[in-house]
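Quick log. Single chain, no ligands specified.
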Amino acid sequence: MITRLETLTAALQTALGDKLVSATTALGEVTVVVKAEHLLAAGVILRDDKSLQFEQLIDLCGVDYSDHGEGAWQGARFAVVYHLLSIAHNWRVRLRVFAPDDDFPVMASVLDLWSSANWYEREAFDLYGIMFTGHPDLRRLLTDYGFVGHPFRKDFPLSGNVEMRYDPDQQRVIYQPVTIEPRVITPRIVREEHYADSEGFRKG
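-> predicted structure:
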């Protein structure tokens, strides 16, 4: 008996054709990968093909694979993952697209395909530094305008790059280099011998 996931996978393979890099199933979900150059064409197919009809983008996020698999990852560093929902067929698919340039990750905006991508793409830009060509207003969304860097990148320092404070002499908020010295704190665990024998406690 053919399952719904098998039906969906077959429909994806047929509709996407040579634009499809891979289609895998894990934990009851289907993930398809297409190249960045085919993103918009694949998006139109996923949305408009009658056998798929993924009319709704329910989430979009960036991913930094630089430390994936404890450093064993050999592929492109940055990817954008799109979570799509078909209300007509009541099924979902995960679309993963890798940015071809690790130093300057760029992806086409899917805003014209799914209007909900607007803030999602701004968030991915803000947190990962992924650019979306064709986005009409690609500004930071969660960090402030003076923020330096992209905080969800694996190489972003834990203390950040700049700090903000109020300067009483200038009577305004200013940015300055971080004054916190980076250090690794190893917690110390204190164990008392015969803890269970101490006064006020009973042995189990």
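The CA atoms of residues 53 and 88 lie 7 Å apart.
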